[in-house]
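Fig. S4 source data, part A: sequence.
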Amino acid sequence: MSLKKFACFVFVLMLAALVAAPAMAADKSDLAGRAATWEKEYNADNLAAVAALYSTDGCRMPPNAEAVHGTDGILAQLKTGKEKGIDKVKIVVTMAETNGDWGHGTGTYEIMGADGSHVDHGKWMNFSKKVNGTWKIQCDIFNSDMPMPMSQMK
């Protein structure tokens, strides 16, 4: 490929990236804002504030565990995570879209222990809905990118 053709190819890729970028900014549900709040409140041990981000009939689907439903179930699952060493999280939103009163998004996460050590990392998906004018998480699921420990394999 000639240098001129390569330069044109790179220009087209850059143009496509610029055109695609506003789609994330156009997310009317502000998933990125909710993700930042989720991370901030979880890291501050304010688990009730994290649970309040979910609809009252919401759910979480953690890896290697049963799904939990409702505010009490979500709060209990968050507390269990803290007890098992999920001390801090970092959340990145990679995609978010809305359609009326429904929205969804995907991203990545990283989990750190109390000493800052890496515990896990992976990906997540979130489905949200507008409830009485406020966006709430209806359900989320997250899965590790790390191999399952041998002790958990059957």
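Fig. S4 source data, part B ends here. The first strand starts at residue 54 and ends at 61.
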